[in-house]
Amino acid sequence: MKLSAHHRIPRRTATTAVTAALALAGLLGTAAPAATASTAAATAAPAAASPTTAAALAAPDIPLANVKGHLTQFQSIAGSNGGNRAHGRPGYKASIDYVKAKLDAAGFITTVQQFTYNGTTGYNLIADWPGGDTNRVIMAGAHLDSVSSGAGINDNGSGSAAVLETALAVSRAQLKPAKHLRFGWWGAEELGLVGSKYYVNNLPATERAKVSGYLNFDMIGSPNPGYFVYDDDPAIEKTFKDYFAGLGVPTEIETEGDGRSDHASFKNVGIPVGGLFTGASRTKTSAQAQKWGGTAGQAFDRCYHSSCDTTSNINDTALDRNSDAVAHAIWTLSAGTTEPPTGDTFENTADVAIPDNGTAVTSTVTVSGRTGNAPAALKVGVDIIHTWRGDLVVDLLAPDGTAYRLKNSSGNDSADNVQTTYTVDASSEAANGAWRLRVQDVAAQDTGYINAFRLTF
Ligand code: DTR
Ligand code: CA
Ligand code: ZN
Ligand code: ZN
């Protein structure tokens, strides 16, 4: 339980003990070389401010060749497994294994969720990108199964490949969004949204409440494409429409989508949803052909649920535009508010020797790129290697010099090291500037050093 009854200690007055919240220890690494000698008043060189925010970052281009490479793999998998990637058939599990291997290699935390339908085992693949606020999850998904009549390259290799390549782009960028990113590949969608329903139904209500939005991509490379945006959550819809407007590509509201793909499973439990679609068996009108090109009077996808839904059943421009739109939505919706997102960390890992029973030393981090004041729950990560930590007094110094007592000396605390995170109400302090951790050893014998100092906003 965190108790953070902090009182701001006016500058240069006798420090008053305040209760510091001790969060889980171990946020900072403990491995460190023996302390290097340094002058008593030494202040470690401030680490270069390294805000790890994605607030303003634009999404990278998603390479069409990479997306098509995944489609080639799905085609090959179908070819080696009876011609399809359908639920309960070997081609589906082989597809799961392919996608999972790519994600594991890219640093995702993957989970294969099993379920049974029609007497056979189905699989969902969930991939979490470590970091971000796990109370605010942005999720993107696609069904990975095909119908039994073919390889299902547009339906829905296209969505699966675009979501996979976007996840891999997140890894390449080492993106650190404010919100937590999760990706899903669903089984048995063609049999009635079975896999996504199973996932949602087995997600505790507390976990469902953390999903800020679910983005669905089912058929996004149709050979005679339309550009349809789901008309569900307004913010998600706007994100997609703005993207296509930026390309000069008109969009239409997806009118047949309700209940027709995996977003329905999420919508049914109150999770905001959105998504993209390039059309299935419906016929493109003349007006649509006027704005999008292609062939009026012909289905958006003539090979829908047919054996001809192969890698030749893809419109490259549609697949490229939609893959880039997936990335745009992920980068944009996970960045949080206009403020640099929570999870912004600044740290200094330079060692600073603490003189035994001597003057105080400091370690400095310089915060920049933020606006306004620091938060009321500023996380102060402290990592001090020191025998008999009862010798130590530890303060946080705000940029204006105001001292916040984190730890008092306590003669009988013979344990080693101070490795924990304090929560400080720093809301009266400007966020930007040089923050310092001040440490003083006030009792003879036992020595050590500051190993790391971290501020998380
Ligand atoms: N049911 C999907 C294809 C599909 C048909 N209409 C829509 C609208 C929105 C998304 C998907 C679809 C399938 O066959 O997988
Ligand atoms: Ca691209
Ligand atoms: Zn289908
Ligand atoms: Zn589909």
From TrEMBL:
Residues 1-37 form the signal peptide. Residues 338-457 form the P/Homo B domain. Keywords: Hydrolase, Metal-binding, Protease, Signal, Zinc. It holds the Pfam family P_proprotein. The keyword Lyase does not apply. Gene3D superfamilies: Galactose-binding domain-like, Zn peptidases. PANTHER family: METALLOPEPTIDASE M28 FAMILY MEMBER, PEPTIDASE M28 DOMAIN-CONTAINING PROTEIN. Belongs to the peptidase M28 family. M28A subfamily. This is P/Homo B domain-containing protein.
